[in-house]
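Sample pair:
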Amino acid sequence: MQDATNLILNADGSVYHLGLLPNELAPTIILVGDPERVPHVSKYFDTITTKKHRREICTHTGIYKGNLVTCISTGMGTDNIDIVLNELDALANLDLHTGKPLDRFTKLTFIRLGTSGTLQPEIKVGSVLASQTAIGLDALGAYYKHPLLPIADELFDYFMKASIPISPYAVEGSNFLLSKLDSTIYKGITATCPGFYAPQGRRLRALETHIQKNIIACLASFTSAVGKITNLEMETAGIYLLAKTLGHEALSMNALLANRVTGEFATNPEKTVDNMIEWAFAKLINQ
C-alpha cells in the first residue's frame, strides 16, 4: 500500500507546499530566495503563463525567447530547499496520483540567482561568482546519498583542529552549466551556512560561542587541494545535493554584496543583482 503521507496533494491535485500542477512547471527553473524577486526576474519573460503564490513560495512560469522558464522563490535556508526541489522533481517525474515514477525521466535545470558574501579580500564586492563546489555546514547532507568529495574531509579535519564540531558535506555544480561561463564571472567554492547570524559569525544580543567567534576566520583561511572557500550563503549546498541526488543540473550564481573579511558592503546592491539576472538570461537560458 502506498504511504499517503509521502507525497501530499492539495484538493486541486497540486503538490502540497508549492501549489503547482505538472503543466505549470518549465524544465528550466530559476531559484530565488525572496518571493519579491520573482517578478523582478519574470519581467524579462516575453509572456507569463502561470502565476501562483502560496506561503513564501511565489511562482511565475512563462516564455523567454522561445524557452519555457519557471522562476520560483524558495525562502531562506536548505530546509526550504529540501521541500522545493523535491516537489519540483515530483511534478516532473512522478505520477502524482500513485506516487510512482513516470516511464520517462525529465531532467530539470536549476539556476540559483542569489546574494552572498565573499571571504577572500581579493574578490571584488559588486561582482558575480558561480559556485563550482558547495560545502554544506547544515545537516541536510546526512539524509541523502551523494558523492564523497575529499574537500569535505579536509575541512572536517581543519574544523576539528579548531575545536569546531561541524561535519560538512560537499557537492559539485553542473559541469555542463559551468562550461557556459566566461572570464567575467568568478568561479569558486561556496560555503552554505544553516543561518544568517551566529552561523555566519554575526553577533547581536545572544551570547557569543567559540564557533560563532571563529567560523569566519576558519572558513576564510582554509585551503584545500582545489582552492580556498570564496563565499558563503544559505542555499547552494542543498540545491546541489538534491540536484545531484535526483539527476538534475544545477548552478548557483552569487551576487557578491559584502566582503566578510574586509567589512565592505556593495554601494549599489540592486545593480549587482540586475547584472547577474541579465547575464543569466543571456548566457544560461537564451541557448
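Residues 74 and 84 are 6 Å apart (CA to CA).
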